[in-house]
Design goal:
alpha/beta; single chain; eight-stranded mixed beta sheet; binds pyridoxal-5'-phosphate; three-stranded antiparallel beta sheet; Aspartate Aminotransferase, domain 1; Aspartate Aminotransferase, domain 2; 13 helices
């Protein structure tokens, strides 16, 4: 009898797949530049006032369980935050989770049965697929369009929705999930694209989910639009949290917002809240720290602005250096802190992106992630969080590597 469940095999994350090689190299005394995981506090320290709020919550012995669907202080702060996106949220419209990661679990466990599907756009944030598959679902893939700055191929999406409806398959499609700003491409979706995707979700009756975890890390003049602003009367879910905007990945606080009051939205809220009740509580001191940070608009704005300026400088510097490499082409990111270059594998005589990333790590000691891990083979993802000197060294090594392998 096999000890493991069938679903256990789906719990994989391409991000960490080369850690063992990197650690082995480090044990041999090599300096490995790790550009695989997007963990901002490692490069931009979490703001002092947030640390103080967390410590204060501990000192005040706020160490009991939190309310299962989230502390009222945090729900209030989230409701205020979304007023700027034109939403009027009640406490029952918000469920607090242990990061967006847990919200993804709630989403899939609440909506997906074996044989169901969800529309995901390639390249996707890698864990979307395992979360879906673990619940027995299968992805229906659509694409962000690289030629259009990784915006959405709307014509193609509409064609697929129409076909699925005609063939009776649309009933099984439980949600459509977009990421804005995007990981791994750094694209901030155009306002018109958000509007059209909302219209499609409405016309075809598919729940729209938007992962907006990078919504304040936007630069180069780009403008972010939350689906909340445009999806009035259309069932939707917004995912967000402390990890990126508040520069506090390790606090493990996130949330799902379900603003509408139609039958489907009310059912989703109740299911999320029921799932929250069986895992009892998210971290209480961390929720109180996030609530205080959200309420402290002045200090938060200063901190996130400073971090975003720093990130923009690093991303744009990395772009400049990558442009010197004729074997890579990269769409300019205007949000988050990732770069997603396309690799000329043919010129480099390499079969696939996994070969490229493995050889790069072994030969040049730079760890990046294969694009196929995000559903887009022939690319790799690197973070642009480290200081300029490290980015410069890493990209010099990448460029040297490409030159050496190219015909
Ligand atoms: C698009 C996206 N969603 C969700 C997450 C995970 O967020 P959390 O730390 O809140 O679990 C990440 C982390 O990198 C991400 O990039």
């Amino acid at each position: 009898m096999a000890i493991l469940s069938e679903r256990a095999k789906h719990a994989v994350n391409a991000l960490h797949e080369e850690n063992a090689i990197a650690e082995q190299l480090e044990r041999k005394g090599k300096k490995v530049i790790r550009l695989n995981q997007g963990d901002p506090p490692l490069y931009f320290p979490t703001p002092e006032y947030m640390i103080e709020e967390h410590v204060r919550a501990l000192r005040e012995r706020k160490t009991s369980y939190a309310q299962f669907s989230g502390e009222p202080e945090l729900k209030e702060a989230i409701a205020k935050r979304y007023r700027k996106h034109g939403l009027r949220l009640g406490h029952e419209d918000v469920v607090v989770t242990a990061g967006v990661s847990e919200a993804l679990q709630f989403l899939n466990q609440s909506l997906i049965d074996r044989g169901d599907g969800a529309i995901l756009f390639r390249p996707y944030y890698a864990p979307y697929v395992p979360h879906l598959r673990i619940s027995g679902g299968a992805p229906v893939f659509e694409n962000y369009d690289e030629k259009d700055g990784w915006n959405i191929e709307l014509g193609h999406v509409e064609g697929s929705l129409r076909r699925m409806r005609k063939e009776g398959r649309l009933r099984k499609v439980k949600y459509m999930l977009i990421t804005n700003p995007n990981n791994p491409t750094g694209t901030v979706l155009r306002h018109s694209v958000i509007k059209e995707i909302v219209d499609l979700a409405s016309e075809y009756g598919v729940l729209l989910v938007s992962d907006e975890i990078y919504d304040e890390i936007v630069y180069n003049g780009a403008a972010f639009t939350s689906i909340g602003r445009l999806a009035r009367g259309v069932p939707h879910v917004i995912l967000n949290g402390a990890s990126k905007n508040f520069d506090a990945t390790g606090l493990r606080v996130g949330y799902a917002v379900v603003p509408e009051h139609d039958k489907a939205s009310e059912a989703v809220k109740l299911a999320f809240s029921n799932f929250a009740s069986i895992r009892i509580s998210a971290n209480r001191p961390a929720q109180l720290a996030l609530a205080a940070a959200m309420e402290n608009g002045a200090q938060h704005n200063e901190a996130v602005t400073r971090m975003t300026i720093g990130i923009a400088q690093r991303v744009n510097y990395a772009m400049k250096l990558l442009k010197e490499n004729p074997h890579l082409s990269t769409v300019q990111p205007n949000g988050a802190f990732y770069l997603f270059p396309r690799i000329d594998l043919k010129a480099m005589r390499m079969g696939d992106d996994a070969t490229f990333t493995r050889k790069l790590l072994l030969e040049e000691h730079v760890q990046v992630v294969r694009g196929s891990g995000f559903g887009s083979p022939g690319h790799f993802r690197m973070i642009a969080l480290p200081p300029k000197e490290d980015l410069e060294l890493a990209i010099k090594r990448i460029n040297r590597f490409c030159k050496r392998h190219a015909r």
